[in-house]
Amino acid sequence: MHRYAILILIAVSCSTREVIQPQPDAMNAASLLAIENKFDHTYPLGATTFVFNNDHTYRIDYASEGRYWHEIGRWQSSGADLQLTATGCDYDEYFEKGYKCSGSFGGGLCKTVKDDISLKFAYKLVCTSARNKDIGWGRNYLSFSVLASRIAPETRLKRNGFDIVTLGRIDSAVIETVNLRASPDVQSKRVDYLPYDFYDNPNYPKSVPKGTKIKLLARTVDKLTVKNIANYWYCIEVGALDNVWVFGEYVKQ
Fold first, then answer.
1. pLDDT tens digits, residue range 4-13?
2. Per the count of CB atoms within 10 A, which of 44, 127, 242, 250 is most buried?
3. What pTM does this model have?
């Protein structure tokens, strides 16, 4: 019997981007392969790698929480998109008894779309399976950030009515035990802390412990006041969470 853990990545969408947005015609899937042909997605419970080769073959390696499969096939341009045809697959006999090759990608279509969640990349490559409604985590698609569309620091964005500016990924830490929020507002939904090793440490706290290392992704343009204290709100990476918010009074400067 497989064990499953639910990993929730909290993020809020961006409605406008004011600086360095890659042009759509330069970010279609067919032209993307000239500058980027390997895509990786790594997370606490697994990893997926998708490689497009120059001879128009592809390879996918998928491993996540007791589910492992490998697929090869051929790709061809279809307008601005990529059409995929599977030619073979295999699996780990021990872990993959219930899925076999019927649980692999099975060919399909890849396209680039604007990423309105990420604060690091403007585009993502989304590959949708032609035959399988569940290739992992109940989804029929694989999604990868397009590294060539990295958003530069000091890019101004608009998020749920808040003006923010990106910071890249600055190393920092919290100086007190602190609660996380889904948006830069003390009244917004609280987000429970999820350490990267949560699977091995099930009794983790719901608040971020003092001294925990974080990455600063963005901050509000203006300082906001919480309990008579004016400071920025910071959008951060912490543990297994991405795009969650913490008030600046609790962030090492």
1. 333 333 343 3
2. 127
3. 0.80
